[in-house]
Amino acid sequence: MTPTRSRSPLLDRDPAVLVLEDGSRHEGYAYGARGTTIGEVVFTTGMSGYQETLTDPSYVGQIVLQTAPHIGNTGVNHDDPESRRIWAEGYIVRDPSRMASSWRADGTLDDALERDGIVAIAGLDTRAITRRIRSEGSMRGAIFSGDAASQHADEQLAAVRGSAKMAGRNLSREVSVDTAYITPAVGERIGNLAVLDLGIKQATVDNLARRGFDVHVLPQSSSYEDVQATDPVALFFSNGPGDPAASDTHVELLQRALRDGLPFFGICFGNQLFGRALGLDTYKLPFGHRGVNQPVLDRSTGRVEITSHNHGFAVDAPREGTFDSPAGFGRVEVSHIGLNDEVVEGLRALDIPAFSVQYHPEAAGGPNDANYLFDRFRDLVLDRLSKKGAHA
């Protein structure tokens, strides 16, 4: 990304163009910072929660298109960010609000995008672009705005086609913390929870702390010895960006923890890494799941949950019945299924204390249907601790 920060009001309508790798061009006007940004163009279907979306570290490497037509009407504030900055490579909207109409607003979305150097484009037919992505699959693209919009079309397309694809990229190192930190438990303390930060959201940390864990957030480069040094009662893998097939060191760390009997919970990217630790494969979805309105079936209860998703990869596992872990961790079952396309949305090990889901139970930008999963994790850890105490 090579943004500039020359301020221009929305009404100035500086030129901008979105170029996709299939050669299509979509002209609009500049929004946020001016310059050039390149990434995988993906769409998210949430009607609200744009601030939570933009500050989700899982969007590193991606240009986010909002399918909802009117964005920015409630501005931005200091309470709702999921992390320390906006992580999306770029932003595509149809009709940005020219003012913030909320008593909670501390500023406008346009100002926030410019502050963090995020090149965006507005005034496009986002429905048409979404239909193209749904038909052809997620593809690389670039936003050229301001002076960059006047570059020759062939040069712009060459820049897009010469950029890195998402498959094979390990991006967690770009978003993880550099040094460990601790968030104290709220209420009755259970023990230390080791959390591998692959792109964690603050709402996740808060939910874990409210379940009685002293949350030790560790850099993604941490070793299993670093995990053990926290004296953990359990291990948690967060969401994050990138291809799970490019994260072998994280898979190896998790396998060591599972062999030691450490209770485990993973979400989103953590679900994909759990699948690989069990010996399963992962694959890239045509256009992914992104939004706060994805229906998922919890097979243990028969309940359909409306859940928050942000993933472009998924685990390949048998949908029906139980199966043996190819890596030797006993019996496993698919615990949750996406009802739109039957994608695996959760895994549960039956012979070790470990499970995962592909979506976001903290659901800060949407409903709370899946928040019970933090309670399920707490109960799993307490059950494990009680059994260890009985055998002590």
Automatic annotation (TrEMBL):
Listed GO biological process terms: 'de novo' pyrimidine nucleobase biosynthetic process; 'de novo' UMP biosynthetic process; glutamine metabolic process; L-arginine biosynthetic process
EC number annotated for this UniProt entry: 6.3.5.5
Catalytic activity annotation: L-glutamine + H2O = L-glutamate + NH4(+); hydrogencarbonate + L-glutamine + 2 ATP + H2O = carbamoyl phosphate + L-glutamate + 2 ADP + phosphate + 2 H(+)
Keyword Amino-acid biosynthesis assigned: yes
GO terms, molecular function: ATP binding; carbamoyl-phosphate synthase (glutamine-hydrolyzing) activity
Involved pathway(s): Amino-acid biosynthesis; L-arginine biosynthesis; carbamoyl phosphate from bicarbonate: step 1/1; Pyrimidine metabolism; UMP biosynthesis via de novo pathway; (S)-dihydroorotate from bicarbonate: step 1/3
Key words of the record: Amino-acid biosynthesis, Arginine biosynthesis, ATP-binding, Glutamine amidotransferase, Ligase, Nucleotide-binding, Pyrimidine biosynthesis
Highest taxon in the source lineage: Bacteria
Membrane as UniProt keyword: no
CPSase: region residues: 1-189
Catalytic machinery residues: C268, H360, E362
Assembly information from the UniProt record: Composed of two chains; the small (or glutamine) chain promotes the hydrolysis of glutamine to ammonia, which is used by the large (or ammonia) chain to synthesize carbamoyl phosphate. Tetramer of heterodimers (alpha,beta)4.
Function: Small subunit of the glutamine-dependent carbamoyl phosphate synthetase (CPSase). CPSase catalyzes the formation of carbamoyl phosphate from the ammonia moiety of glutamine, carbonate, and phosphate donated by ATP, constituting the first step of 2 biosynthetic pathways, one leading to arginine and/or urea and the other to pyrimidine nucleotides. The small subunit (glutamine amidotransferase) binds and cleaves glutamine to supply the large subunit with the substrate ammonia.
Stated family: Belongs to the CarA family.
Protein name in the entry: Carbamoyl phosphate synthase small chain
Organism, as annotated: Microbacterium faecale
